[in-house]
Amino acid sequence: MASVGRDSASPSALLTPASLARLSDVDLMEQAFEASQQVAALTGRLVQLAGELDRRQGWRAEGATSLEGWIVARTGASVPTARAQAHVAERLFDLPHLAAGLASGDLSFDKVRAVVDVAVPGTDAELTARAKTCSVRELADLARAARRRSELARDGRTGAGGTDADDENEKRSVRFNDTFRTVTAQLPAASYAEARAALEAGARQVPSDGDTPWDQRLADSFMSLMRSDRGAPAGGRAATVGSSPYTVVAHAPLDVLLDGESQLLGELERGGLIAAETVRRLACDATVVVAVDDQGGHTMYEGRQRRYPTAAQRREIMRRDRHCRFPGCANLTFVHPHHIKRWKPDRGPTDLPNLALLCDYHHHLVHSNAWTMSGDANAELTFVGPTGRVMTSRPSPLWTLVTDRSPSP
């Protein structure tokens, strides 16, 4: 591998405390980034060599029973690392674009691993291009959505119209571990969304001086719910009857509600894709809010009529951004819509292109002028730091997936 031009950045260079102390913060970040590309490239070389070794079953010569076992014994990797490397090595043979992106250092191993199971030769180039602009988390969302679309399409072909909800319902469970005093629940998507919304709504009401962690407030909310009427069994004391006070959001084309035969997909907020019959079942005992989308599936414009976004706009911003839009920030709990072009001094409109989610920390950074933020939140945002570093952020790639088309057979 060619040197990047500085002795201290060479893979074989010894980094002493003295040499590290001479580097500026910018040099440290640039060399760390270059090292990450070198790691990716070497990992790409490893998995390509390992893949060919596996096709020959050459690992048998050293007494191994699998490629995974050989990687563990020969390289000292952990079993989970070896398992991931062996799996990617097997899949990359028919995916030359992903393989080239990894071998060149343009794609990290984690990005390739996120999409390798849903990639086929026909989508290899497209997923490689996506991987260059999406985060690992976004790629995992895309892969999960692709698998879900495939499952729903398969159910549609076999005529199993109700299996989506039925299969999830059959897997519901609550388990207790008395040793560690833990409660583990597996719930259908709609029930999970309702439980999460209820616990988070309660946690926000728990008094805190800033010292109580969020997970502890969730625990307090959980116990409060258990002690309330809503936590009582149906045959117990005064169980509450009526509509839930919590908001569970599902996005779906209007055709799903108007046409009982429609098979267009819906999306449960923070819960993934759901079948049309699940959307209609949720709508049976829910308050339906109609929001008008444009042709791209983008919702609601308020202009200068109001400073703060409406509840419907906030839901759409959350669906679009999923978490704080600052590059690399995955905070999704304490986030707020922020006017990119400021409301008062710059007369910025309260419209989706001018609103983006920022967590408290990055909201402060932008307002303190340590960073500048510009662009169209529906397309691409640009963040420029005090050192001149430029980073970009794009909406979730799943944003308009629901308004696309139903899965093809």
For the terminal residues, how far apart are their CA atoms?
A: 45 Å
Main-sheet strand order equals 3-4-5
- How much of the sequence lies in strands comes to 5-15%
Task: Specify the number of helices.
Answer: 15
Rounded mean pLDDT is: 79
Helix content class = 40-55%
Q: So what's the overall shape? A: globular
Computed over alpha carbons, the radius of gyration is 25 Å
Largest sheet: 3 strands, antiparallel
Stretches with pLDDT under 50, minimum 5 residues: 1-8, 157-162, 231-242, 405-409
Structural class, by secondary structure, is: mainly alpha
Order of secondary-structure elements: HHHHHHHHHEEHHEHEEHHEEHEEE
Give me the count of strands. 10
Summed up:
This protein is mainly alpha-helical.
Describe the structure.
The structure is a single chain. The protein is mainly alpha-helical. Among the domains are: 7-133, no CATH class; 171-231, no CATH class; 311-393, no CATH class. The chain has 15 helices and ten strands. The chain has helices at residues 17-21, 25-56, 67-75, 79-91, 96-104, 109-115, 124-133, 136-158, 163-170, 189-205, 214-227, 254-258, 276-284, 311-321, 360-367, and strands at residues 173-177, 182-186, 250-251, 266-268, 272-274, 335-339, 355-359, 372-376, 380-384, 390-393. The strands form four sheets. Strands 3-4-5 form a three-stranded antiparallel sheet. A three-stranded antiparallel sheet has the order 8-9-10, with no helix packed on it. A hairpin with a 3-residue loop joins strand 8 and strand 9 (380-384). Helix 3 crosses helix 4 (79-91) and helix 6 runs parallel beside helix 8 (136-158). It is globular and about 65 Å long. Mean pLDDT is 79; it is low at 1-8, 157-162, 231-242 and 405-409.
